[in-house]
Amino acid sequence: GIPVSTGASIMVMWFILYQCALILFDLLAFIFEFNSIMAIPGISFTLFGQTLVIPVVPLIIFGFVLNASVILILLLMSYSHGIHNFILHYVVGFLGKIHLLKNPDKARESLRVQVENFKIELRRLQANIPVVVVQIILFLIMLFCRFCIPYFAGLAMGTMNEEFSVARLFDAAFLNSFHQMVTGII
Fold first, then answer.
1. Against a cut of 0.70, is the pTM above it?
2. How far apart are CA 28 and CA 132, in angstroms?
3. Tell me: the pLDDT tens digits for 121-149?
4. DSSP bridge pairs for 43
5. For residue 44, how many other CB atoms are within 10 A of its CB?
6. Residue 4 reports pLDDT greater than 90
7. With the CA atoms of 64, 67, 69 and 74 taken in that order, what torsion angle do they form, in degrees rounded to the nearest 10?
């Protein structure tokens, strides 16, 4: 019973606030787990008989930057007509020429509509700060609960040889956040 345009607007607002909460959670995780992250030697794997080691810190930083850049690009497209036009004309045109986009004109129109929806939602978000704060807090709680699942699974299976610990719960949630950033890149 909800009009499509209203549903799309709700999803745009949800996405914006989710990305903001994810960035905030990742920042908190980086602050609290800095020593643990720096102690990780890297991810090693064998490819064609060669063992390669990829340091974890650059992957985490890249994942954080990737998450933050989504919001930054949306904001830049919303506020900067130059960047908006550059993306709509040159980037979409280039992607059409290399055949990554089958219909560049349709993609341009779709992007234009999405940016206009984003501008409308951004104005609505800026006009209702108390609701935004509540939503960010709820997203942070949701992220925390989601990132705690492996810890509780380990406790349930009895594989961790320890009792429940609030400190370990937070460690697990924050470290799982880093895991999500790295696997998100892949």
1. yes
2. 19
3. 778 878 889 999 999 999 999 999 999 99
4. 54
5. 9
6. no
7. -160
Burial 64-89 (b: 16+ CB within 10 A, else e): beebbeeeeebeebbeeeeebeebbe
Max CA-CA distance within the chain? 59
Torsional class of 161: left (φ above 0), alpha (ψ -120 to 50), beta (otherwise): left
Pairwise CA distance, residues 158 & 66, whole Å: 36
DSSP 99: T
**H or E element: which one contains 51?**
strand 50-54
Residue 168: count other Cβ atoms within 10 Å of its Cβ. Answer: 15
Give yes or no for a contact between 29 and 178, defined as CB atoms under 8 angstroms apart: yes
- As a whole number of angstroms, the distance between CA 15 and CA 21 comes to 10
